[in-house]
Amino acid sequence: MTAPAPASRSLTEGPIGRNLLLFALPILAGNIAQSLNGSVNAIWVGKFLGEAALTATANANNIMFFLIGSVFGIGMAATILIGQAMGARDVAQARRVMGTSATFFIGISVLIAIAGWFMAHPLLAAMGTPSVSLPLAETYLRIIFLATPTLYAFAFLGAALRGAGDSRTPFRFLLLSVALDIVLNPLLIFGIGPFPQLGIAGAAWATLLAQSLSLLGLLAYMRQRGHVLWLGRKDIALFRIDLPILRALVVKGVPMGLQMVLISLSMIMLMTMVNDYGTDTAAAYGASLQLWTYVQMPAMAIGAACSSMAAQNVGAGHWSRVRGTARKGVLFNFLLTGVLILPLILLDRHSLALFLPDGSQALAVARHLNHIAVWSFLFFGVSFVISGVVRSTGAVIAPLLILAASLWGVRVPFAELLQPRLGADAIWWSFPVSSLVSMLLSLAYYRWGGWRRARMMSPPAHAGELATPAEVPACPPSPVADADAGADVDAQPGRS
């Protein structure tokens, strides 16, 4: 076994709360920057191209989220495998995972991009995209499909680097991508200077160019710095498929990817319901989605940080730190998400108006649905954090079933069946109701489920320092009841 290179960072020692927050902050800042980029694009589209164009991008982005979700699990499984290997101080295994994952992940993304180019129109039509928005949405989505391989490659590299304990490098190059996208958007939409006037297609081309340039920059940086996960020409053999790793990626990654697919399918189903109420309601929902993206950011950042930290500690056999990670993650979620929700409620008239034309009738609808649904993200955050922790061992089926139950057993039926009585309000209320169910089920599984005995690969490759099931407490405390233990872990960071 070899020690991690300086480019990586160990998350198996030091105060849990401070390290988790410091690791999560670049992820959070990157997510916020990415969301700001999407919001700036939406402002250009909604303000200057109109409600039909904004509705077009909202419908197209729902499909794009579905396609990202279809390969998301492979990247997440690779992150966990890399994290466990780095926690066990097995850099050679981490690099093997990197090579196999890159070959499989990027190859699949190319196939999805090709299929998506031809399926753009039928998919949008099946969603019931308003006829006035359909041609615009098709133009936008087809160009975005061209960007899919670079989007996936950039996201995969960022996830792999975070698995190795490096959250700052992906953040720096994400900022570069956002800056390029923001600058290129008006140039390509309106044809400023030597650039052609492309309209809504310009927003998609800006994304493609920004992502491609940032990806090339990240690859050059990793090569120049000799990052522990950089695979050059002398490492070409590592790109050959390692069957045990591939099996773990597929067996564990597919259920995690299915979670994203279930989310995106439910969003598409809800978008289809919203479209039935006309362009004003659809535009209001699209504007609200822009705000909700920010509300989700703390939970997503903390959940990603918890997953990386927990994976390294699972690899090192530090189970007390895994419990401490869950407890701190839940606490940070409530604090940071709550801080965002309050101003978005108090100032929603001004914030929602950014995405709608002056005097739009959609503003009142957007304010109404935002007051109902935005609180659900407090509950969503707990589920996201807990799922990130339990998946770090390889337990992927239970989180999938919990998500399926909350979305397809509660959210979609609630929205569909109560519309005759509540109208569009049934759609808005389905968010907090289903999110509460998801949180309660996630906490119950964390407390009583068998996730601690799960494994990403069986038997563990290359003799990593994974704890055996006999070493795992039969019934560790829940994240709330674990407060005293978590405090001890912070005070004694080296204890396992």
TrEMBL record:
Q: What is this protein called?
A: Transmembrane MatE family antimicrobial drug efflux protein
- Low complexity: which segments have biased composition? 480-496
Q: Where is this region: Disordered?
A: 467-496
The answer to whether keyword Membrane applies is yes
- One Pfam short name: MatE
- Kindly list the residue ranges recorded as spanning the membrane: 20-43, 63-85, 97-120, 140-161, 173-192, 198-222, 243-271, 291-310, 330-347, 372-390, 397-414, 426-448
Q: How does it sit in the membrane?
A: Multi-pass membrane protein
- Could you tell me the superkingdom of the organism this chain comes from? Bacteria
Report the main location listed first in the record.
membrane
Keywords carried by this UniProt record? Cell membrane, Membrane, Transmembrane, Transmembrane helix, Transport
Q: Where in the cell is it found?
A: Cell inner membrane
Query: NCBIfam families in the record, alphabetically?
Result: matE
Molecular functions (GO terms): antiporter activity; xenobiotic transmembrane transporter activity
Q: Can you list the GO cellular component terms from the UniProt entry?
A: plasma membrane
Which InterPro entries does the record cross-reference, listed alphabetically? Answer: MATE_fam, MdtK-like, Membrane_Transporter-Flippase
